[in-house]
Design goal:
Diaminopimelate Epimerase, Chain A, domain 1, 19-stranded mixed β-sheet, about 325 residues, 8 helices
Length: about 325
């Protein structure tokens, strides 16, 4: 049986998009896990240059929802959400159904998505909702060694003697620290990220995304992320959204919501807007590219056997346009 996938990315956070509706019977969770592990390998061992994960698109039984998204990480684990991936899924579903404003089912919420003006020629963009937000330790999966139910801008001695972290889930769990430039590009993020995701630490036994954030100016930040289940990534949509929320809460002169924040990352740039609803709950808009790189077709059984010798691919040309857009940012 042949399988068709689209290589996609948001801010360089890259995935293979797999539409389950192309099959008479959807792939099992075991097959999805093995497929992700095989095709996402980097350094020439996977499908082309590999990927950060697989975005699984399927029907949704929820009313007023156009489709469902699941996120399978490169190591085969499942993430609750992916903001960069959601933009590409939104574009795919919107194109298939000729809609520009709709909802997509994710693990914890049906999220609003909308087509917006292109970032540049041949760089289509989408705005997606990032929610729900929680700071509660139990819901984040945090087992701190003290009795605090939240960690907001605090030193965690096991991680660092001077860096201050905030823990928030959006709904993926994140640890965020605001740092200077040398710390941003230095080895600390890798050290902490690897330890927090080794399955042995006592603070986040199920792992956590770790981000260092540098403030570039008013409403302008740079976010570098070590992503759970992936490692260093060009961008993490939920991390950039969570970092934007903490920037508004901790580093603006006044807590001023609804302002556009420019968020740079190793893979490009997105825009975010932090909102506070009437119920005083937070949610974020994540606005960025939704790039389709290539369409690939291969045998499903071969892919599950880690054999990519007979794959065929059609390039879309959008990656060249995106690289031109990123070059202008510099």
């Amino acid at each position: 049986m042949a399988v068709k996938m689209i290589k996609v990315h948001g801010s360089g956070n890259d995935f293979y998009l797999l539409d389950q509706t192309q099959f008479q019977e959807p792939l099992s969770d075991a097959d999805l896990k093995q497929l992700a592990i095989n095709i996402c390998k980097r350094d020439g061992a996977g499908l082309y240059e590999g990927a950060d994960g697989v975005l699984v698109v399927d029907h949704s039984e929820h009313p007023q929802v156009l489709g469902r998204m699941r996120v399978i990480n490169a190591d085969g684990t499942e993430a609750s959400m992916c903001g960069n991936g959601l933009r590409t899924v939104a574009r795919y579903l919107g194109t298939q159904n000729s809609q520009e404003d709709f909802r997509v089912q994710t693990m914890y919420a049906d999220l609003k998505v909308q087509a917006v003006a292109d970032f540049a020629a041949h760089v289509p963009a989408y705005s997606v909702e990032i929610s729900p937000v929680t700071f509660e330790a139990e819901k984040i999966g945090m087992h701190a060694n003290h009795e605090a139910t939240t960690i907001i801008n605090e030193v965690i001695p096991e991680l660092s003697s001077d860096l201050k972290f905030s823990a928030v889930a959006v709904p993926n769990p994140h640890l965020i620290a605001f740092v200077d430039h040398d710390t941003l590009v230095g080895p600390e993020l890798g050290r902490i990220g690897e330890w927090m995701n080794d399955g042995k630490n006592s603070i986040f036994p199920d792992g956590v995304n770790v981000s260092f954030v540098e403030i570039l100016g008013a409403n302008s930040i740079f976010v570098r992320t070590f992503e759970r289940g992936v490692g260093f990534t060009n961008a993490c949509g939920t991390a950039m959204s969570a970092s934007s929320l903490m920037y508004v809460l901790l580093h603006q002169d006044s807590t001023d919501f609804n302002q556009e924040i420019h968020v740079k990352n190793p893979g490009g740039m997105v825009k975010t807007v932090v909102h506070q609803g009437a119920d005083e709950e937070y949610w974020m808009e994540l606005i960025g590219n939704a790039t389709f790189v290539r369409i690939v077709t291969l045998s499903l059984s071969a892919a599950l056997d880690n054999d990519f010798s007979a794959v065929t691919a059609t390039e879309t040309g959008e990656q060249t346009a995106y690289e031109g857009f990123v070059a202008q940012l510099a």
